[in-house]
Amino acid sequence: MNWLTDVSIFMRGHLASISLATVASLLAVFGGEISRSVRNSIKSYNFFVRAGVFILLVTFGYGALTVLFASLLARGLAHLDNRWLAPVVVFTFVVIAIVAEEKKQI
User: Fold this and answer.
1) Does the structure show a pLDDT above 80 at 65?
2) Domain boundaries, the chain
């Protein structure tokens, strides 16, 4: 159990990066569905409107989601006890990988 605490202590110094990687992974897995939904709702508009919506979605939508959720996730992970931090982080990435596998993305 001591090694688990050591790994969690090491992870604490990298929570911002871990959180950013988690949010980026989630956007990689689900971003296509978000983009497809937006694309289907604006397909009847002309090119300039579609391009503008795409730029807004990518820059502000995905950018804001990444910054906001990574920050919230890092704060949430910081509250976990050292016994739980490493298992929760590993479990989260395993679940994301399973979802990506089921969606035929890996």
Assistant:
1) yes
2) 2-102
